[in-house]
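Training component of the fellowship. As part of building independent skills, the fellow (R.M.) carried out the full modelling exercise for a liganded target. The chosen ligand was SN-glycerol-3-phosphate. The inputs are recorded below so that the supervisory panel can assess the work.
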Amino acid sequence: MKFFIDTANLNDIKEANDLGILDGVTTNPSLMAKEGITGEQNILNHYVAICNIVDGPVSAEVIATDFEGMVREGELLAALHKNIVVKIPMIPEGIKAIKYFSGKGIKTNCTLIFSAGQALLAAKAGATYISPFLGRLDDVSTNGLELIAQIRTIYDNYTFDTEILAASVRHPMHIIHCAEIGSDVMTGPLSAIKALAKHPLTDLGLQQFLADHAKGNK
Ligand code: G3P
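Fellow's submitted model of the complex:
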């Protein structure tokens, strides 16, 4: 399973990249705003800064909600760097835009996926990735992992090339369950990625090894 980090914070992106396990980055307008990145040129520059840190797909989201606007913005974003993936919302105009970009060989990430039907439509339009929002479904008492599993079955039935990018991942168990289901990618915060490494018995065991080594080498 590929690991993407879901943030626009350059320090977190660097830290995850330095671990050597990072495959890509996803952002969204809320994450950009959280970092105080505003204004078209600053936003574009920030995407380039991210691409200069990570050698992998970087999702950059369009703001327009009409087909022409999405095409205009998406082409501008795609021209920034070879690793940019144009992130497009799951709305009818978005489906048209995904189909358009697919025909041009521009990679897309269809975002705000909350149902299997939406995932099916995005795959038929030729999306490179689809982003089902796991945590946000859990937030409204709906099992987000069941949706990932349902989409996995559908895509495997028809060998769609579209990759399932589990988004809105909140904690390490989400990551583990996504890996069990066979999600192609997961995107989550640095905290969830780092939490995978934690185990009290590892810390205790290491403490003991170091203490025994110190005793033996007195
Ligand atoms: O990037 C989209 C998604 O990952 C958002 O996550 O935590 O805001 O639901 P969250």
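The panel noted the following from the submitted structure. The first helix runs from residue 10 to 18. Residues 118 and 206 are 47 Å apart (CA to CA).
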